[in-house]
Design a protein that fits this description.
It contains 15 helices and no strands. α8 packs across α9. The longest helix is centred in the first third of the chain and has 30 residues. The C terminus is likely disordered.
């Protein structure tokens, strides 16, 4: 246990976060603000009694998207189509909720499954473009987002638009077609579903042969191919799971307040890019992704509270996120004695490669 704590304190991730906090304090000092008061406002506004509900609600979407993007990233695959997949999941859940003839509880389940299926199918399309057309996954997933977002926008503004409303939103879902909430808060059962997805990801990553294959592919694609891992099939599987999780997040957003699909509500908060940032910060490790997602949810919600109480712009929290990623990306440029703990998996791959 002491060795793990020591390793965590000396890790590049810890260094990057602390560097971001320090540089943020310097920015605050440069503007004449009090860094201690600003950071206290962030923590109080996000973790206090009035803010913890918003943090958990935001964290549900951030963590869901972080998991969706971390799963392929673990194998060295970058899925940039989160916006398209989350929006398709949301609009599909809305259509299912509006037109399903089933009772409300079954309609909720059907809407969740339909949203996951839509996201999975669209992510699989990006994988097929790479496997059979030679379009890099990074490019195909990103470009496919635009028609998906445009289609959802059209449906919300015209065929499914709420009559008499000036907002680009669908009609409200029928009574009872909603995820159960915890008390009077905005936190719903969606948080439990995302937490279960994180637990399944951890178990698969650490306790199964599939998880080992995924990690080995991310560390050394040539070695994993030599060992018999079929990359095309793995890409299809990981992208379908990734899209299903993104679609689940979209469905959760529609089945929670305001219980309808609102054009831009799933993309404007930047859940996809915040989730990708969290996955990168944690190097796609399951537990690290959970912690990083909560960290960024605290920054996102706390930034609003900081702006209200200290008049410090909430954009500072975005600066903190950017600085953390810059330091994390530059860690290989620092002297090796600063980060002398190498991942066990990397050493294992190198030893096995030398043996072969």
């Amino acid at each position: 246990m002491p060795q793990r704590i020591s390793g965590a304190l000396r890790s590049p991730i810890t260094f990057s976060v602390l560097a971001g906090v320090l540089i943020g304090a310097l920015f605050l000092l440069g503007t004449g603000a009090d860094p201690i008061a600003a950071y206290e406002a962030v923590l109080t506004g996000s973790l206090g009694g009035d803010g913890i509900g918003s943090t958990l609600t935001t964290g549900t979407s951030v963590l869901g998207m972080a998991l969706a993007l971390a799963i392929p990233l673990r194998a060295g695959l970058i899925n940039l189509g989160g916006d398209g997949q989350i929006v398709l999941g949301g609009i599909t859940a809305a259509v299912t909720g509006l037109y399903s003839p089933l009772p409300a509880p079954l309609t909720v389940v059907l809407a969740l499954l339909a949203g996951m299926a839509a996201g999975a199918a669209y992510a699989t399309l990006a994988a097929l473009c790479e496997n059979h057309l030679g379009v890099p996954l990074l490019v195909s997933s990103l470009l496919l987002s635009y028609p998906a977002v445009s289609l959802a926008s059209y449906l919300a503004r015209y065929p499914l638009k709420e009559p008499g409303s000036s907002l680009p939103q669908t009609r409200a879902l029928p009574d009872g077609v909603a995820l159960p909430a915890f008390g009077d808060s905005t936190v719903t059962l969606g948080l439990v579903l995302v937490a279960l997805a994180a637990a399944v990801y951890w178990f698969t990553d650490r306790r199964t042969a599939v998880g080992y294959e995924i990690r080995m592919t991310g560390l050394n694609a040539r070695f994993s191919a030599y060992a018999g891992v079929e990359r095309r099939g793995l890409t299809l599987k990981l992208m379908s799971v990734s899209g299903a999780l993104a679609g689940l997040v979209g469905a959760i957003g529609v089945l929670s307040f305001p219980y309808r699909f609102v054009d831009g509500s799933l993309t404007a908060p930047g859940y996809t890019w915040t989730g990708l940032t969290a996955a990168l910060l944690a190097t796609a490790a399951p537990l690290g992704t959970v912690v990083a997602s909560f960290f960024f949810a605290v920054l996102q919600v706390g930034g609003l509270a900081m702006e209200r109480t200290t008049e410090v712009p909430r954009e500072l929290t975005q600066v903190l996120q950017a600085v953390v990623i810059v330091f994390l990306a530059a860690r290989l440029r620092f002297p090796s004695r600063w980060f002398n703990r190498r991942p066990v998996e990397v050493e294992t791959v190198e030893v096995e490669r030398e043996t072969v």
